[in-house]
Amino acid sequence: MYEALFARIEDQRGALVDLTRELVRFPTVNPPGEGYRACARHLGNRLMRGGFDVDYVRAEGAIGDSERYPRINVIGRCEGRGPGPCVHFNGHIDVVEPGHGWTVDPFAGVVRDGRLYGRGSCDMKGGLAAAVVALESILAAGIRFDGALEISGTVDEESGGFAGVAYLAEQGRFSKPRVDHVIIPEPHSVDGICLGHRGVWWAEIEMLGRVAHGSMPFLGDCAIRHTGALLNRIERQLLPKLATRQTAMPVVPRGARQSTLNINAIHGGQAEGHDGLPSPVVADSCRVTIDRRFLIEEDLEQVKGELVAILDQLQRDRPGFDYRIRDVMEVLPTQTAKDAPVVRAVAAAIEDVTGGPPAFVCSPGTYDQKHVFRIGHLEDCIAYGPGIVELAHQPDEYVVIDDLVASAKVMAAAALHLLGVPPA
Fold first, then answer.
1. pTM, to two decimals
2. CA 381, CA 372: separation in Å to the nearest integer?
């Protein structure tokens, strides 16, 4: 065991809490991508003080990047004595909107009863702060190693990660020979190793109608009514089928071991956001965004086909029904092998720190492992970090401070194991 290193991390408990609070206080809400530059600079300055060479990468031309909301990623790297493997820790700095129902300020970083509250405290600024302190502690202890340590704070994970990890992966920053092992401190509890995730298909379906005066709807064709017919078919025909499909992947929570479909958004009729009353018009367009999560046992084309079949049947059954469908995002399920080097290293570290065996889990939703795998072609990647996954995106989100500290110890030990540094 790395007892001296663990003691050093324990001594940094206050600094770890402070860093987490500092990151939470940047309201990096996505969309639209508020505060990315300031948060990335703050993190980069911290890494430079800790001994890292720091690089800022703006994802110019990527989805969402603009002068008002620049997509700024930060990467810190510290080279060892000589050639060897690189262990990379990646965390996203963006958070979802706070929403309603909070009893504390979501961006204050309130500490109470051993918990740190705030939007992003669990998902996943707490995990990112723990990784920073873990690597800082290795360098501060003067531990010698061959290879390199890297850590990144990336953007837009909550909206797909295309201006963050995907953009960096396209530049070779998540591929060999630059990087060999990746740990993503997403919240899966202090003893949980997340091997992968279910698949996802996002699609936008537009029902088409014909405009007319609202007092004479019989002269038009209401796209919103067609949308209602689609939702009714999904509710009666598709959702019961999905509920019967179960995966062998250890997805948590258990309710996510089945196939699911969520209606993410509906936009129909006249645009909102203007003063005054609406005009009397039959809606000639209504768009539905669906979020279909599928299992490793399912085929993506079959997943798409069963929804298209419902739409085509509606065309035959319902006069005037017409539609367009557009793929927004598709990601296949991913699962890293339990005997992969990064899994073995983190599992051993969990046993050292907690005294118990790890729990192997998979995520209900995708995270940036998908880009490391499909673009970087690097399979030695898992998620491990503090926090309770069910608290992600909830009001009064929090992370337990003891778990922050314990996970920092696990990450430090796992990094040294992967670098070939034996326990002192």
1. 0.91
2. 7
